[in-house]
Design goal:
Length: 267
Amino acid sequence: MDFGYNYGYEYNYDYPSYVNSNGSLFAALMYIYLIILTVIAIFALASYIFHSIGLYTIGKRMGREHAWLAFIPYARDYFHGELAGEISLKNKSIKNPGIWKLVLPIIYSAVAGILIVLVVIAGIGAGVATGTNRGMGGFAAIISSLIGVYVLILVLAVAYTAVYSVLRVLIDIQIYERFTTRNMAVVHSVLSAILPLYESICFFVMRNRDFNQGMRPAPHIAPPPVPPVTPVPPENPLPVQGADPASDKKDDAAQPPIGEETDHKTE
């Protein structure tokens, strides 16, 4: 029996659109991040290769024996500084710039690491002070010391960057001066300290240029070979050690004296 009623049940579930949009946005960000990392890695590898080839060729042309150090990490920093030679300042001079270029980052990393450990200890102390409710006085003291260490790290980073950049500019000036003018050497050195890939390209381009007049390193001339010395026997040889003196006496006794021989002939 149909009374004309039509019961239709339709259920539609609408999920929020932000679920799919967040997933696609995260995927897009990851793709962009991977692309940026790939570009950075390519630029870093190209800079390393160009820089190493340039240093190696310049070092070989300057007569350096260990030019292969240009391809070894950390050792290439030392070799880069040693190519410049002694750097003369107004009142002082840097005799071994390669050693300073190698040691300065190590010193900075050690000091910065110690300061970071102090920051971590101060942060733990602040957390302990907050958890045990020691009062705002102790917490404020820890926070102030924490801020002081942060400021010290910032000052250290700025000072290190300034000193290292100046040393790098001085080293590059003396290398570039072998191939270009003084003014252009200064310009190239400053741009090398600012732009990441500039120094590598400059070394790679200048590696086969002719040296400026007076800047060509002196050729290494091997000393002439020393002729062998022929031993000269002595005029009066000494008696051989170990000889039997009795045999010498027998030979003397067998020969008559000179006087006796003449007397016998006279008779």
